[in-house]
Automatic annotation (TrEMBL):
<dbReference type="InterPro" id="IPR051686">
    <property type="entry name" value="Lipoprotein_DolP"/>
</dbReference>
<feature type="domain" description="BON">
    <location>
        <begin position="78"/>
        <end position="146"/>
    </location>
</feature>
<dbReference type="Pfam" id="PF04972">
    <property type="entry name" value="BON"/>
</dbReference>
<keyword id="KW-0732">Signal</keyword>
<keyword id="KW-0032">Aminotransferase</keyword>
<feature type="domain" description="BON">
    <location>
        <begin position="3"/>
        <end position="71"/>
    </location>
</feature>
<protein>
    <submittedName>
        <fullName>Ornithine aminotransferase</fullName>
    </submittedName>
</protein>
<dbReference type="InterPro" id="IPR007055">
    <property type="entry name" value="BON_dom"/>
</dbReference>
<dbReference type="GO" id="GO:0008483">
    <property type="term" value="F:transaminase activity"/>
</dbReference>
<feature type="domain" description="BON">
    <location>
        <begin position="149"/>
        <end position="216"/>
    </location>
</feature>
<dbReference type="InterPro" id="IPR014004">
    <property type="entry name" value="Transpt-assoc_nodulatn_dom_bac"/>
</dbReference>
<keyword id="KW-0808">Transferase</keyword>
Length: 216
């Protein structure tokens, strides 16, 4: 059995193992470590969970996610109902600044806009609306407020990566211009790649992160 065949079987097993996913209609192909997910799921939350579960599998270098969300009839909601539920959910979330985020819904696809101070607030907003009934996709267009002082940003991120047992920092390089961060080099897994990006986003002053890390 080839490495790609083994990887395909491992991903299929992980998708079936993950209790939040109904994997019956998900197809998996693998080529040189790149895994493509196709088929359909019953919610946007399942679509996101499938991508995360795939990334956990050893040997996955990249994930191409082509899943379609097909809502069961009982899960469908009007755009106005989805928008109202999203606004209400965000208002109760202590992780997002009150009234900082705007919501638009078109045919079940939810778009978030606005400006926050931290990336974790941007992520929290998306996480809150991801599981709402009737949502078939989320576009997160929330921006991070720029800071005046971004000197030493690349060094701060490099030091944070060095503190983690995940990384050999000789293989991960960080550059920053104003608040724009770029990661280059190699890591050992797709999960390490995601963790490196999360570490960079946590730096005060980071307004964008371009993740060009390669899974070796």
């Amino acid at each position: 059995m080839s490495h790609d065949d083994q990887l395909q079987k491992a991903v299929l097993a992980e998708l079936k193992w993950e209790p939040s996913i109904t994997a019956a209609h998900i197809g998996v192909t693998a080529e040189n470590g790149t895994v493509t997910l196709s088929g359909h799921v019953q919610s946007y939350a399942q679509k996101h969970a499938a991508e995360m579960a795939t990334g956990r599998v050893k040997g996955v270098r990249a994930v191409a996610e082509e899943l379609e969300v097909r809502l069961p009839f009982e899960f469908k909601r009007d755009d106005a109902d989805i928008a109202a539920a999203a606004v209400d959910r965000l208002a109760w979330d202590t992780g997002t600044p009150r009234d900082a985020i705007k919501v638009k819904v078109e045919k079940g696809w939810l778009t978030l806009t606005g400006e926050v101070h931290w990336h974790f607030q941007r992520e929290a907003a998306e996480r809150e609306v991801r599981n709402l009934m009737g949502v078939i996709g989320v576009s997160n267009a929330i921006t991070i407020k720029p800071r005046v002082d971004t000197a030493g940003l690349s060094d701060d991120i490099q030091h944070a990566l060095h503190r983690s047992w995940f990384f050999d920092t000789e293989n991960v390089h960080v550059t920053a211009q104003e608040g724009r961060v770029k990661l280059t080099g190699t890591v050992n897994s797709w999960q390490e790649r995601q963790t490196a990006a999360s570490t960079a986003w946590a730096a005060p002053g980071a307004t964008s992160v371009e993740n060009d890390l390669i899974v070796a």
